[in-house]
Structures are given as C-alpha cells and as structure tokens.
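Might I ask for a little of your time on a matter of protein folding? What I wish to show you is a protein chain and, alongside it, a tokenised description of its three-dimensional fold. I should value your view on which stretches of the chain appear to form regular backbone elements. You will find the record immediately after this paragraph:
***
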Amino acid sequence: MKAKFDIIQSTCVPLPLENVDTDQIIPARFLKATTRDEKFFGDNLFRDWRYDADGNPKPDFVLNDPTYSGQILVAGKNFGSGSSREHAAWAIAGYGFRVVISSFFADIHKNNELNNFVLPVVVSEQFLSNLFASIASDPKTEVKVDVPNQTVTNLTTGESEKFEINGYKKYCLMNALDDIDFLLENQPKIEAYERAVVGL
C-alpha cells in the first residue's frame, strides 16, 4: 500500500529465526494466483507456519499470538533468502507490516520490499539481539524508525543506530511514489531535457 514514510513508532512482532526464505514467507503454490490483492497475500503470509493442514491457526506461531502486534516485524539474520519472488514482499505489505528489522537481508528481497512500500532496516547483530530481549521481556516494547534521519531506536533501552537507505528509494518512500509515479512527477523535466539536448 502506498503511504508516506516519516516517523514510524510501533510495537513489534518478533520472529527470532535465521535464514527465513521466501518460500517460508509465501509458499510457492501461491505464485499461481492471478490476483495482486494485498489481503490475499497478507492472509497467507507464513502460511505453512501459521496454519495446519486443515487451515486452523497454529496457536504457537507468533502471528496467531495476540500478545504481539504492530507494524514492525523483527526477524533473524538473512531474511528473505532463496527465490527472488516478489510475492514475498506483497505478503509482508499485505499483512500490514511497514518495516522489517534484521541484521541482514537477501539483496533481491530487500529491493522487493522497498519497491512495495516496506522499509528493510539493517541493524547490528547486537542491536537485534537486544531488541529481541526487550520484546521477550515486554511485548509492548516500541521501536521508533525515523526515516528522514535514518535512525532506529529501541524505546525501552534507548539504544539507537543509523541505517542505510538508497537516496532515491528514501525519496520515493517519503513521498509515497513508486517508480512510475516518480517518472510522472519528473515528466516536465524529462521533456525539457529532450527538447534542449536531444532536440525532440
């Protein structure tokens, strides 16, 4: 969902597992879907971990635990590895997560998240470990993600880190623009350049 990014402050959903791949995020059978409906993919986020074979919620999986909620998913190292399927980012966005925090993302998945208005925030392993500990101690722990200043803060401990983001993608997120929107926004400049330089 297109929404402007500024400061996001939220409780978190912890997923302290490493090497979560895209087939676990959204199983391959859902790639056959003919819809881009966000709710459809969000409803099937982590489908095989979230539901049993009869479609009943597994009470021990974090998304089915009412203790945890929020717009921020906190995941273990190497999140989004495996297949490059964009559907994984659709599912994360469709569920309602706006930020995913991890100490490492697979490159293609990281870019897919950015293209689908989900902000991947890379933090140190120590920051991640401390954040998991804070959430385990108090599920109401909040994190503040300041996009303009590129900082992420654990509001329980006060620990804060800077995170990196491509300048173009930062601009797009802060203005709720996808790549086509960005081109349309700059259409007058493009046309002026073509007239001046290319002679069109």
Notes: The chain is about 35% helix and 15% strand. The first strand starts at residue 7 and ends at 15. The longest helix spans residues 125-137.
